[in-house]
Amino acid sequence: MQRQPGRGVGGAGLGTGKKTRLNRILHQHGLRNGTAIFLPYDHGLEHGPRDFFDNPVVSDPAYIIRLALEGGFNGIAVQIGLAEKFYWDYAGEVPLILKLNGKTDIPSDAEALSPLHASVADAVRLGADAVGYTLYVGSPAQETDFRQLRQVREDAQRLGMPLIVWAYPRGAAIEGKGGRDSFYAVDYAARTASELGADMVKVNFPHPEKVSGVKDAYQHEFSPQQAIDAVVRSANRTLVLVSGGEKAGDEAMLEKTRQSMEAGATGLIFGRNVWQREHDESLRFVARLREILSQHPRAGAPGA
Length: 304
Ligand SMILES: O=C(CO)COP(=O)(O)O
Description:
Blueprint: H1 16-27, E1 36-40, H2 43-46, H3 61-70, E2 75-78, H4 80-86, E3 96-99, H5 120-125, E4 130-137, H6 142-159, E5 163-169, H7 172-175, H8 183-195, E6 200-203, H9 224-235, E7 239-243, H10 250-263, E8 267-269, H11 272-275, H12 279-294
Parallel strand pairs: 1-2, 1-8, 2-3, 3-4, 4-5, 5-6, 6-7, 7-8
1,3-dihydroxyacetonephosphate (13P) binds next to helix 11.
């Protein structure tokens, strides 16, 4: 049977540890139907505490982990410091995705590089089910980034740890080519993560408007659905997660979710749109996301 884009991972290259962990994330948590919703919480490092101002309770990592449990998430993504101090109380109840690199947004993004500050061995020690790596596709520092990612990929392969790449187009060059969220940029980022060995890739939803300064192929009229279809195709056997971005209207988020799932994405990684609201509101919103994902089950165990 021909594989559907984004519907199966691995094959011969997938070790048993990776397969076990992916199976735990995709089939033993959340909806248990091969889809996923992750709760990311690395904003305190990436943006500083400003993202917590409107709803101060979310500055408490324990609140977020409890929200992930109550909302039936497939995992939480945090940096090492929070994983070490807060995951202990909830170990094994919701899968941990340990972010291995990260940076502040105090310097400009012109030469963006996200340095490593944790290892795949840390992820094993903490009982994580995946590691996260932020790759700045197109940055002038791309060469160093690729080298860092190679080390992480080799360690992940050796230790049986799934690798999720946050594939962000960044750096001076991308601003002249439609910008970081353009269809061209997101499509290229998805393909790059796949080419470099990611098991899952996290991308922003592409903006399909025509842009100047990029290849002719991207100059046609595309609908949002055509753009996300192409991004999932570009990722091929790398599973696609679509991110939330800044807080937006619920209907826009739900539509983005429908289009992503229709395209063959595995799921979502929504942070601010989930936790920048009152607790009950967060749970109600997540229930609506789950309703959409429940209509798009993904076949079989990973690697099957
Ligand atoms: O993956 C993410 C941050 O690491 C996405 O977070 P947001 O949904 O808040 O954009």
